[in-house]
Amino acid sequence: MLLSSTRFSQGSVELHMHVALEPEYALFYNRRRGLLYDNRYQPCSQAPSRGRVTFHTLLEGSLSTSNGLEVTGPALVCMSHDVFEGASGSRPETFRAHGEPHVSLTLHIDRDWVVGDHEAAPHLVTLSAEVERAAREYTALAEGHGDTSAFERASSTLIAAFVRDGLLQQRPRVPRTAAQYGERIWNGLSVYVTQLDASPTLGMLSDLINISPRTADRLMKQLTETYGLPAEGFRDMIRRWRLKLATLLLSGRDLTVRVVAQRVGYRNAEALANALAAEGLLAPSRYRQLWDEPYRNEKR
Prior knowledge:
The chain is α+β, with helices and mostly antiparallel strands and 300 residues long. It is 38% helix and 23% strand. The protein has helices spanning 81-85, 129-144, 148-164, 176-179, 183-194, 202-208, 213-227, 234-249, 257-263, 269-278, 284-289; strands at residues 2-10, 13-21, 25-33, 52-65, 70-72, 75-80, 95-110, 123-125.
């Protein structure tokens, strides 16, 4: 299992992210205050997610979707990952988070594991006490920075709970040797993620883990292929990470555009604005207004 975790706080803004990857699935833990997550204004994936389904376990807070779904935690929302993330340049399903704090654990898993058809827009499925308990045990580990073996046990417990609920079917695991190719490059990337530093170059990364840029590039491709990451190489992954983090931090009322720009690796506010515009996203100042506007009246 490949792990990374980071925390950020400034004033009333608080962000804690934890990512755990296996070849068959990925777990994303999020806890945030003072930040609005609205994936209408996130950069989209350029390629399909290799056929994955998303189970979004909302533990605290609430969310709204463009198909009229209003959810208050604890609850379990399911959809195809392509709908959640946006694929082939399309905009993702509207998915806006509310509530303080907002706490969620999201499972992206290969479709071959999933029982039933979840290709439609986001929809509620029954959240059993067992799945909720397993999700809360995992998030408690993420808050306390447990070791890798503890996370592996907790994730296995969570998957087993989904299987017993009839949402997943047990499938043979991918040989762990396939997962080892990208471990070195992931460990290097995790250094930057932990520091919320979104400005590494391939040369910086290769120096950090003491390999050649050519080898780093090859390992990066193996990492994205093995784990089904929605990126087309190193530059695309870093670009997406920088813009996703920027659009989230820009919604924090305590953070200036200049602070956000520097935090995610841009020289100044103008450079960040240009990067957002090139992606067809909003101007930095526009994100501040999202807090105060009615959700359903916002242009998509």
